[in-house]
Specification:
Helices cover 36% and strands 21% of the residues. It has helices at 43-53, 60-81, 116-123, 133-137, 146-153, 196-206, 218-221, 227-233, 237-240, 254-264, 275-296, 313-322, 341-355, 362-365, and strands at residues 2-8, 14-23, 30-40, 89-100, 109-113, 127-129, 161-166, 169-175, 188-194, 302-306, 327-330, 375-377, 388-389. Helix 8 crosses helix 11 (275-296).
Length: 390
């Protein structure tokens, strides 16, 4: 079956689209990527989404306009990847604007901005969306959802295998060995901490809006890393929290950046840090958080890296330096480009929804049981549901 996956992550920088074909066993399908495309958001849309994702108040009418703009951008990316309309189904994550992980005595909730029925109408194809809600209702984190797809699409090797996505947030998947006594161990996965959220905000601040990101980490590479400050940051509550855990721009956003810059300055009234030094320290902190997480668990033989951060040469250098004993390899070397991995995962999750196959892993999210993920919207006048279908 040909399925189109659409993904826009915490960075809110655009939409990745992958047209893939799936067949065979549900748990280990045969698959291939037929086409892909990436569409950046318009600068004003990006700015508004980042602001909303950090709690900036916005009128209801403006939120509705944003939802429409996001949906239009998803449709445009879909057509770029699938101009001939070959997809029989679309899986769309939507744009996360707020994520509230569960706490003792309080359920978790998550908000992905998207008008699913409108997207189904525009693409004239059924759309599966709202992937997190079912897992959240069962007490889970609702994220990360990609580890289940990693296990199905890539599988294990002779030892533990890790996959790292460096989007707005750094998140890990740990796949058990394909043989040996730990072969039956559960898949693991969690959000480690910040990746590009703090880095991109810092670059935009230091460049006065002239740059959106640090290309190849060149600016950071010219600075000095404050290792002592990184060791302090590694003691923070979220970093030390045991999985399951998930996070986003709500925790690692603008106010968090300003706190860290103040700490690098030595406190209120201190000398502001040199931009290159601040970027070097923030970049190294991302790598240090990942390394610390791997140190606390079973050390993998290899770490496959995807997402926009995989194109940051300085960040990759820091990962190799700090993840000793683990081969750090771009996932692109296995034939899945940086921008394809998560869109491919949501194509698979949509296919699983169509087949009635659970898409969540309680070992990752902490939910009470696995669940069928997503809600299906059919184009008006088409499909069994004539609208929305769970």
């Amino acid at each position: 079956m040909r399925v189109l996956g659409l993904m826009s992550g915490t960075s809110a920088d655009g939409v990745d689209a992958v047209l893939a074909e799936f067949s065979g066993r549900l748990d280990r399908p045969r698959w291939r990527i037929l086409a892909s495309a990436s569409l950046p958001y318009a600068p004003d849309l990006h700015r508004q989404l980042v602001a909303l994702g950090q709690g900036q108040p916005l009128a209801a009418a403006a939120v509705l306009d944003l939802a429409e703009a996001v949906t239009e951008a998803q449709a445009t990316a879909a057509r770029a990847a699938d101009p001939d309309g070959l997809a029989e189904l679309v899986g769309c994550h939507g744009q996360t604007v707020w994520h509230r992980p569960p706490e003792p005595g309080r359920r978790g909730l998550s908000w992905q901005l998207l008008l699913g029925p409108l997207l189904a109408h525009q693409l004239e194809c059924p759309v599966v969306f709202d992937f997190r809600s079912a897992d959240l209702a069962l007490g889970g984190q609702g994220a990360p959802l990609v580890p289940a797809a990693d296990a199905a699409l890539l599988g294990g090797i002779g030892g533990w295998r890790a996959l790292l996505n460096l989007g707005g947030i750094a998140n890990l998947t740990l796949l058990p060995p394909s043989s040996g006594p730990q072969r039956g161990a559960p898949v693991q996965g969690w959000d480690c901490g910040p990746a590009n959220t703090l880095l991109d905000l810092a670059v935009q601040q230091f460049s006065e809006g002239q740059r959106r990101f640090d290309a190849d980490g060149a600016w950071a590479r010219s600075g000095r890393i404050d290792e002592a400050r990184i060791q302090i940051w590694l003691q923070e509550a979220y970093v030390r929290q045991a999985p399951p855990k998930s996070t986003g721009r709500e925790l690692f956003g603008g106010s968090d950046l300003q706190r860290r810059l103040a700490e690098l300055a030595g406190g209120p009234g201190g000398t502001p840090p040199d931009p290159a030094d601040a970027l070097a320290t923030l970049t190294a902190f991302t790598a240090a958080v990942v390394a610390a997480d791997l140190e606390r668990g079973t050390r993998p033989l290899e770490l496959l890296v995807a997402g926009g951060g995989a194109r940051n040469g300085f960040l990759m250098e820091q990962l190799r330096r700090r993840c000793r004993g683990t081969a750090v390899v771009p996932l692109a070397e296995l034939g899945i480009a940086d921008e394809q991995r998560e869109a491919l995962a949501f194509a698979l999750l949509a296919w699983w929804h169509r087949q009635g196959h659970p898409g969540s892993l309680p070992s990752v999210t902490g939910a009470a049981k696995p669940s069928l993920l997503g809600v299906r919207a059919d184009p008006p006048g088409q499909g069994q549901g004539q609208g929305l279908e769970l």
